[in-house]
Write a structure and sequence with these properties.
alpha/beta, Rossmann fold, 2 domains, six-stranded mixed β-sheet, elongated
Length: 346
């Protein structure tokens, strides 16, 4: 065991992290050299619903000493990531953890995000949290952190090599959107899709889920699908063009809530809000507000504050050498005007 890793673990244990372990949990112990806490392949490949964490591993109590987590994300100026960070900070404060969040100025620059991640790792955090631009661009930083015994946790998008991923099933989110449109138009309708950035793993999974979901409802016909690069104004322009080409469209799925709001903007310009149903994905506050107003019919929600909170909790569990599976599946649901009051605090 290296002296530095031993010192890191001693500091964690001295912090008084109290975990009331369930019968299946492992007692905290020092990490082996070069590995935070060894886990076999069956653990790394397993998944667990986030709602089962406390019953399996015990309830977390605050640390008596602060721990330092670093979070490298894709983009700071975005409703979804703002809510993830709000969840991070709230749970970090509750559990005695400090967290520093950084992101590249260019949200699609792989090299800039890599430099930001290298700088975050250089601060020697107790846990490294990551939302990479894609599955590979931060692999070198992840490998370095793993080799130094620093737990690596991804949020919402899983990169190669990470110890544990926190996130929802994005294919299922797209499938839920197809099911929602079927419920609105059981007799059938023409539908369209506004997609995210072409190479984005989110877009790939959500488009896959939506198209696969539509196969179960052959009377829903996908007649148009355009990319809008996650941008509200681009989504508005794409929708205006789609509706000009296919005025008979009755339902539109946007791969994100921000783009769904752009669809709503376009339909408002066309005076078509009353006869075209729009569903998004994410569950961010602006979408909830639009649902409450009646301009957006629904969103396949993934509760970003919860994902942030789960990342903090999972970091503490990994520092305590609990065998948390490789995927902690965060909640998802379809939010509508009818169900919105149930999510008032999320």
């Amino acid at each position: 065991m290296s002296r530095r890793i031993f010192q890191r673990r001693n500091a964690v244990y001295a912090a008084g992290l109290s975990i009331f372990a369930a019968s299946t949990a492992l007692a905290p112990r020092a990490a082996e050299a070069g590995v935070a806490c060894p886990a076999d392949a069956s653990v790394l490949s397993a998944r667990i619903p986030s709602s089962d964490l406390d019953s399996r591993f015990g309830v977390l109590s605050p640390s008596s000493k602060p721990l330092k987590f670093a979070y490298v994300t894709q983009f700071l100026d975005d409703p979804f990531w703002s809510e993830v960070m709000a969840g991070l900070r709230s749970e970090a404060g509750r559990l005695g953890v400090s967290v520093e969040s950084t992101a590249p100025k260019d949200r699609i620059s792989e090299s800039e995000q890599l430099a930001v991640a290298e700088a975050a790792l250089a601060t020697n955090p107790d846990v490294l949290l990551l939302t990479p631009i894609n599955a590979t661009n931060l692999r070198s930083v992840i490998d370095k952190a793993n080799a130094r015994g620093i737990p690596t946790i991804s949020i919402n998008l899983k990169p190669e090599g990470v110890r544990t991923h926190i996130g929802t099933d994005h294919v299922a989110l797209g499938a839920k959107a197809a099911e929602f449109l079927h419920e609105q138009f059981p007799g059938g309708a023409l539908v369209a899709q506004i997609e995210g950035e072409l190479t984005s793993p989110y877009r790939i999974d959500r488009v896959k889920g939506f198209k696969t979901g539509l196969q179960a409802y052959p009377n829903l016909t996908l007649v148009a699908s355009r990319t809008a690069d996650w941008a509200r104004e681009t989504a508005m322009a794409a929708t205006l063009q789609i509706m000009a080409d296919q005025p008979g469209i009755r339902g539109i799925y946007a791969n994100s809530d921000l783009m769904a709001l752009g669809v709503v903007d376009a339909l408002a310009k066309l005076d078509r809000l009353d006869d075209v149903v729009v569903v998004g994905t994410d569950g961010v506050l602006p979408a909830k507000e639009a649902i409450a107003k009646g301009t957006l019919e629904g969103t396949t929600a993934q509760f970003p504050p919860k994902e942030g909170a789960l990342a903090i909790q999972t970091g503490l569990r990994l520092l305590a050498c609990q065998p948390v599976p490789g995927w902690v599946v965060s909640p998802q649901s379809v939010m509508t005007a009818k169900s919105l009051p149930d999510y008032a605090t999320n």
